[in-house]
Design a protein that fits this description.
heterodimer; A: about 110 residues; 7-stranded mixed β-sheet; 4-stranded antiparallel β-sheet; about 0% helix; globular; B: mainly beta; 6-stranded mixed β-sheet; 5-stranded antiparallel β-sheet
Chain lengths: ~110, ~120
C-alpha cells in the first residue's frame, strides 16, 4: 500500500491567494483527518470525515478554511484567502475501524508570504 | 479541559545512551495512550498503543509505560541510535469526544537529538 498521499509536498504562495491541499487516504479506510502543525501549537485537528461526511469541524480556524471529501479516495483542504499566519505543515491522516491507529501522510509544508 | 503535557521539550544525548521521555495527561475518561515518532519532514508514525489495563508495551528498543492512577506515561529508548533523532508525540484518547474528533488530545512533543 502506498500509504496516505498528499500533494503538493511544498507550497509557497502570496498573501491573498487561494491554496488547495489534496489528500488520498489509504484504500479501505473510512475516516480522514486534516491537521495543522506549527512549532508553537504542535498538532491541531482541523476537521475529520467519517464515510465522506464531515463530523467535526470545530478546529477549523476561520471561514477562510474549507474542506471537502467528494468520495472515499479524495479530500481537499482549501484556504481562501491565505494569510501569513496560515504558514504551517498540514497533515492528512486516515484510519479504518474506530480503535485503529491513524496513519499520517507526509504533509504539505505551506509558506504564505 | 483535556490536556497532555510532555517533558522535556527537547533533549540531546550521545549515541548509545538511554533516555526517558515523559507524558502527563488529564484526559478523562481515559481510553488509550499512543506514542508517535515523527522524523523531520515526515508525518507521525505510531510506536505503541496502551489501554487502561496495560502497564508496559515494547517495540524493539522502545518501551512505553503507563500509570493510569497518576495519569503518567513514559517512553524509554535503550541504546539510542542516530536514527532515533526525531520528535516524539504523546497522544491520549478519551472514551467520548473531549479533545476533539475521535477524542484525541495531542502533546506538543519532545524533540530528541542523538549526537554521534
Amino acid at each position: 500500500d502506498a500509504g496516505v498521499i498528499q500533494s503538493p509536498r511544498h507550497e509557497v504562495t502570496e498573501m491573498g491567494q487561494e491554496v488547495t491541499l489534496r489528500c488520498k487516504p489509504i484504500s479501505g479506510h473510512n475516516s480522514l483527518f486534516w491537521y495543522r502543525q506549527t512549532m508553537m501549537r504542535g498538532l491541531e485537528l482541523l476537521i475529520y470525515f467519517n464515510n465522506n461526511v464531515p463530523i467535526d469541524d470545530s478546529g477549523m480556524p476561520e471561514d477562510r478554511f474549507s474542506a471537502k471529501m467528494p468520495n472515499a479516495s479524495f479530500s481537499t483542504l482549501k484556504i481562501q484567502p491565505s494569510e501569513p499566519r496560515d504558514s504551517a505543515v498540514y497533515f492528512c491522516a486516515s484510519k479504518g475501524r474506530s480503535w485503529e491507529t491513524q496513519y499520517f501522510g507526509p504533509g504539505t509544508r505551506l509558506l504564505v508570504l | 479541559k483535556n490536556q497532555v503535557e510532555q517533558s522535556p521539550q527537547s533533549l540531546i544525548i550521545l549515541e548509545g545512551k538511554n533516555c526517558t521521555l515523559q507524558c502527563n495527561y488529564t484526559v478523562s475518561p481515559f481510553s488509550n495512550l499512543r506514542w508517535y515518532k515523527q522524523d523531520t519532514g515526515r508525518g507521525p508514525v505510531s510506536l505503541t498503543i496502551m489501554t487502561f489495563s496495560e502497564n508496559t508495551k515494547s517495540n524493539g528498543r522502545y518501551t512505553a509505560t503507563l500509570d493510569a492512577d497518576t495519569k503518567q506515561s513514559s517512553l524509554h529508548i535503550t541504546a539510542s541510535q542516530l536514527s532515533d533523532s526525531a520528535s516524539y508525540i504523546c497522544v491520549v484518547s478519551a472514551k467520548v469526544p473531549g479533545g476533539g474528533a475521535d477524542g484525541l488530545t495531542f502533546g506538543k512533543g519532545t524533540h530528541l537529538i542523538i549526537q554521534p
